[in-house]
Amino acid sequence: MSTTRSPRFGSLQFWPRVRAKREYARIRKWPVSGEAKISGFAGYKVGMTHIILTDNRQNSLTKNSDISFPVTVVECPPIKAISIRFYKNTNDGLKIVSELFSDSNDKELGRRLVLPKKKSEKELPTNFDFVRLLVHTQPKLTGIGKKKPEVFEVGIGGSKEQQISYAKEKLGKEIYIDEVFKEGQHFDIHAVTKGKGFQGPVRRFGISLRSHKSEKSVRNPGSLGAWNAQGHIMWRVAHAGKMGYHLRTEYNKLILKIGKKAEEINVRGGYLNYGLVKNPYLLIKGSLPGITKRIIRMSVSRRPNKKIPKEAPVIQYISLESKQGN
């Protein structure tokens, strides 16, 4: 009887493996922040390069030494506030009590949502618990050739009065990345991973190949489980199916640099499949999920690590060599 090993550890960590409904992530809950500002931002994944920095971690074996790190470049053109949404906590969940729109919205928004034809009323409701800002990105400022903006909500920190004051101040105006985050800060990123199409169980779940004396197939599971009568197969059995294009969250990513001068980061010949950076950008330590040009959403860290240094390390060198290959 041929058998197969169980899927490797963590293969069922995410289940069901549902493909994302859209290419930019959804954030279900915003962290509570005491500062009156938005709790998130968004940018476009450019590519990767490497830097040399001075290690400032207290317990590191390479403390005060120059070490190399891979970094991801994220272009962050300013986002623009469309409306203020007033929410009320009810027994049936959150309900929108009222919405106050800006009078100066961009025409590109017509590609994404229907805006009211008449000017919205300026009277604010009184029976609500908190507010959120509805914002949109501006891909037209980048060189990725995209016109349709992404529209999503962002949470606002502070008390209810501070939230209203901040939202009214920013309504219809642009918000920049350095108003939300700072260098050396840890934050969470939310993105949709690269789609890999229809894949078999070996690649999808990491099961081992069957014996060379097995019948019919080598890359299939050795057993369909205990309950497989009447065409029923347990959901734990590794089977072929669509892989990738999933919403994923990574916690406590480190912002190494927030830059405004594109020439500091643009590599020779431009980034592969992206081109040149034209807007403010982030250098984030490590890799990020998703493909080039896909939007990356960011939020204030929900699981802050108090042992991590709060100051950004000093960057000694940024590689601007061409990534186009030989």
Written description of the protein model:
The chain is mainly beta. The protein has a domain of 223 residues: Translation factors (Elongation Factor Tu (Ef-tu), domain 3, Beta Barrel). Helix content is 5%, strand content 32%. The protein has two helices and 14 strands; from the N terminus they run ββββββαβββαβββββ. Strands 1-2-12-11-8-13 form a six-stranded antiparallel barrel. Strands 3, 4, 5, 6 and 7 form a five-stranded antiparallel β-sheet that branches. The N terminus is likely disordered.
Describe, in short, the structure shown.
By secondary structure, this protein is mainly beta. The chain is 5% helix and 32% strand.
Order of adjacent strands in the largest pleated sheet = 1-2-12-11-8-13
Radius of gyration: 24 Å
The largest β sheet comes out as: 6 strands, antiparallel, barrel
**CATH architecture call of the domain at 40-116 and 123-194 and 245-318:** Beta Barrel
Q: Encode the helix/strand succession as letters.
A: EEEEEEHEEEHEEEEE
What is the helical fraction, as a range of percent?
under 10%
Low-confidence stretches: 1-10
Mean of residue pLDDT values = 88
Shape: globular
CATH superfamily of the domain at 40-116 and 123-194 and 245-318: Translation factors
Q: How many β-strand stretches?
A: 14
The total of helices stands at: 2
Alpha-carbon distance between the termini?
50 Å
Return the structural class: mainly beta
The CATH C-level name of the domain at 40-116 and 123-194 and 245-318 is: Mainly Beta
CATH topology of the domain at 40-116 and 123-194 and 245-318: Elongation Factor Tu (Ef-tu), domain 3
Instruction: Bin the strand percentage.
Output: 25-35%
